[in-house]
Amino acid sequence: MVNYYIAPQNYYLLKSMKVNKIMALRLILSMMLIIGFASCSKKSSSKKASRATGWNVDGKKGASGKKKQEAGPGLVFVEGGTFTMGKVEDDVMHDWNNTPTQQHVQSFYMDETEVTNFMYLEYLDWLKKVFPPTEENYKNIYEGALPDTLVWRNRLGYDETMTNNYLRHPSYANYPVVGVNWIQAVEFSKWRTERVNEALLEKNGYLKKNAKTDDVTAESNFNTETYLNSPTLSFGGNKDIVLPGKKGARKAPRAGKNGKVVEATNIYAQRSSGILLPEYRLPTEAEWEYAAAADVGQREYNIYKGQKKYPWSGSYTRSGKRQSKGDQLANFKQGNGDYGGIAGWSDDGADITNAVKSYPANDFGLYDMAGNVAEWVLDVYRPIIDNESNDFNYFRGNQYTKNKIGKDGKVDIVTLETMEKDTLSNGKIIVRSFPGQIAQVPVDDKETYLRQNFNKSNNINYRDGDKQSSKYFNFTDSGTDTKKGKEEREMYNSPKHNVTTDSLGNMVRKYDKTNKRTTLINDNVRVYKGGSWRDRAYWLDPAQRRYFPQDMATDYIGFRCAMSRVGPKSEKRKSARN
Known about the structure:
alpha+beta
């Protein structure tokens, strides 16, 4: 056995060190408790006390600024800013169609790629399941959404392969959808909004799991606006599908201290919940051009270092980077009879369209903003952009509507009998409102009376040029001309084809053969942007613009969707140093 001897002075030293350690630990623990209590009280008070009234409220829904909008499926963020719209290096058409104007675009989201055949087939499959085309009541819904595959035909060309295969063959699944007119593109965007929000509500426990696939029918389906206005009317009013929210709202209400039974409130998702996304839609012309140009890549401090000719830097269509030097940066027509170069040395890797993401993205991370297919935008076409009236989020085509209210004072839900249908100039029928949606009507003087910012529902022709170029012009002192009819006073004297149905249900098509027509412009032609596989490099400039009838389709026009940004302009805080 070994005995250790500790000198008295050392013993007392060790003992004092232990005491000091214990005291230090106690001091640290007490400080942590004090800080914890302080932070907890501060946290609880910030959550409960209203900054407006001092009342105890749920502060999580307040303007904390922390809850940001998430990008919807397929979308990328495009930070807004100012840019010169309509500025082109070449104007070979000499049509005064691209007068440069300074515009500001608000931040928004845009599809990373063009809508593909696979994405559009998802839409068609859903319509076919919910509205079976074999039933007479529903046949116009599915048939009206089908792309026109006959756009590939050419009188002096053999293109039957694309006619039969382009939409549905898996080899073309990731190619941009074509043969879709502007109206069909708009309807796809609406459908996409409902399916995305439906999935978000299911994820957050507000809808029965898998109801979107297992329980959906023509009379029982989901619509975002219907849910927000009257949740119990969604899915045909089925309470087993539309569920109350979390936090005990699904439990039966209990009696309070005073014996009164208080029903739960705000048990369904609302706009203030921050779950539902804004609608998918076509981008405006200003948004599309701003996103395609992506001048952010040319920025130095608070200025742009020049204007891009294409969505990429430089004045050439070929890459100057060492790894890809000489490669074409877009899919377009190289020259007469040259859509893809000689065999073994393809200029752009395609003869018709090409799979999305086949070429580099621009500085916003967007693919194919030049070439492949041109793209529909939201605007009605006019030769002049009226920046004197507005230089913020410019858009021509506003037609304001409101929810239709029934005799019972509640919103009027569209039924099978009240579905709205459009007969196009070619006789094709497209359904514009579906069962389960809220019926829409134009705004009236209840909304427009004494307003300064708008005074009618349809604003397509607002400030459409000077007096002589207005849609209904005349030179009389009184401002009206009783001698001339409406058609004679129209600014845009375009052809008027008429489609009607006789008493037997047969389509009667009347083609306008008059030789007095002077233009193709009217309120039903829409802008499309960007070059395509059929176009020369001239049309790849983001500022170039053309128009086409909204109810007609081609083999070179596709589309992509956009979504408005809610909240701050930037994803992160910026300073002058950035």
